[in-house]
Amino acid sequence: MWDLIKCIAGVMNNCSGIVALFDPIAAQSWLNISTAIFNYLVCFSSYVTSVMAAYVAVERCLCVTVPLKVKWLLTPKVTLLACLVISVVVFGAFAAMFALYDLVRAWDATLNASIVIYKKSQFYIENDGPLFAYYNISGILWPLASFVVILIATIIIIVKLREGSKFRLGQSSTAASQPEAGSSSQGKRKDQQQRQQNVMKRDRQVVKMLLVIIIIYIASLAPRIAHYMVKYFVYDYYFLRRSHYLFEFTTSILMIADSTNGAVNFFVFYKMSSSFRVTLSTMFSRSKTSRPTQA
């Protein structure tokens, strides 16, 4: 859901170019509104999705390490509650940043018209120092902590899957070395070996998918972590400060990376996860069958 919100907010943030084809004045107003609202929505949605990714990684790790206990430990209600708590806590940690700017109408001499602009709010002026220190540190710690959790969980999953593959390979070798007792036992042995090979192939596919996801995660969030570190140490690197245009440029690049990440995840899971494809096709088939037929 948060990937979808991120993509929609990214599209809304870049609608000013399309609006400019019909109304340049409205386009400039939309650009200023987007900077104060949709820019932050894309950013904060990225943090929620990063923590969600960490939670999913922990779930997968538990499925591999304690498969017999995971069914009663991670019920659908527990998963739903965890997702709601993550959404409220992470998004709520940054919600105060939406109060940084006031949207007001002002006269623009270049356009010779009244447009909507954003200016520093009273909340911004009164809490400039501690608010931005908290904001920048949170912007570094949330994705960094999520990355560490994902990395540790991925390593554990890969190690456990390889241990299981080695164990099954050893069983297959032992069965192959036993003398043949008949055609029926030989057929059963071949079927067992084929099933073990299919399981090992699936394990390799899971490892490959996890590595692709973690590489995408690093590529999308590492620049944003660096971006926030620069903000923390360089005060003028922000909107309506000395480096306003440089900050605006880098923010636009990061927004493209965030929106791309939100869209790419769907195709990665669709391409590499057979269970995801089955679930998706089941959902669409149910929606088609539930539609009333017209006479």
TrEMBL record:
PROSITE patterns this protein is in? G_PROTEIN_RECEP_F1_1, G_PROTEIN_RECEP_F1_2
Q: Which UniProt keywords apply?
A: G-protein coupled receptor, Membrane, Receptor, Transducer, Transmembrane, Transmembrane helix
Q: Where is the composition biased (Polar residues)?
A: 172-181
Main location (coarse class): membrane
- One CC-aspect GO term: membrane
Annotated membrane topology is:
Multi-pass membrane protein
Stretches for region Disordered: 172-200
This entry's Gene Ontology molecular function terms read: G protein-coupled receptor activity
- G-protein coupled receptors family 1 profile domain location is 1-269
Q: Which InterPro entries match?
A: GPCR_Rhodpsn, GPCR_Rhodpsn_7TM
Protein name in UniProt: Chemosensory receptor B
